[in-house]
Amino acid sequence: MITPPRILSIAGSDSSGGAGIQADIKTIVMLGGYAMTAITAITAQNTCGVTDVVALSPEMVAAQIDACVSDIGVDAVKIGMLGSPEIAHVVADRLESLDVPVVFDPVMISTSGSVLADAATIEAFERLMRIATLTTPNVPELAVLGGDAAMAARGVAYIAKGGDAEGPIVEDRLLRPGELPLSWTAPRIETRHTHGTGCTFSSAIATFMGQGAGLEAAIVSARDYVRAALLNAPGFGAGHGPLGHHIRG
């Protein structure tokens, strides 16, 4: 029996199951990991949008992290929606002492366009980007973070996801301090069922790294899984539907 890697997802709950903690758990389990969670916020949402958000207390988020790490242990961490700057800082406090891969998805806006991070929370992202092994902004998130020049000045590793850009080809660019850029391209999958793609991608990278894969190999495998999940979306919902997490890439 192979012991599964222990993956801790620190993120918000999506009541419709397509993104957030729910997408992370599905992804981690389908890829052979053991999923643990520290829920940062509870959202009422579906494929059409977010109708309500309640952030948990920073103390409760910290308690969840401590409970998992102190007993089960952890091999990799994925960070998603945080809910408040106070939560962002308490997460940074806990992760600074952990020597495991950390994948930070700087969630600011949901697929449906709902704002999930205010200016103070985005400012608190600075600490988490410094701690993270990899930060995974999409096109609008990268713009809010100041673009490639600002990310280079921070000296952090990040993958600029291209799914939100225009055109028939999607390009994901990996940039790391002191190393040549790498990029992966693939034909765009035309579908409205894209809810939770960022959550799925980041948790897949964390799972593969928790299994011992290097960063580049983890990204390649995560891209394959996301593309397979897009192609096998179940077709649920009237808006941006969920992926088919049950299909392994």
Describe the 3D structure:
The protein is of the alpha/beta class and 249 residues long. It has a single domain, classed as Ribokinase (UDP-N-acetylmuramoyl-L-alanine:D-glutamate ligase). The chain is 38% helix and 22% strand. The chain is built from eight helices and nine strands. The chain has a six-stranded mixed β-sheet with strand order 3-2-1-4-5-6, with helices on both faces. Strands 7-8-9 form a three-stranded antiparallel β-sheet, with no helix packed on it. Strand 2 and strand 3 form a beta hairpin. Helix 1 crosses helix 7 and helix 3 packs parallel to helix 4. The longest helix is centred in the C-terminal third of the chain and has 17 residues. The chain is globular, with a radius of gyration of 16 Å. The two termini are 22 Å apart.
TL;DR of this structure?
The protein is an alpha/beta fold and 249 residues long. It has helices at residues 20-30, 58-71, 85-95, 119-131, 139-144, 147-154, 197-210, 215-231; strands at residues 6-14, 34-46, 49-55, 76-79, 102-104, 134-135, 158-160, 169-175, 182-187.
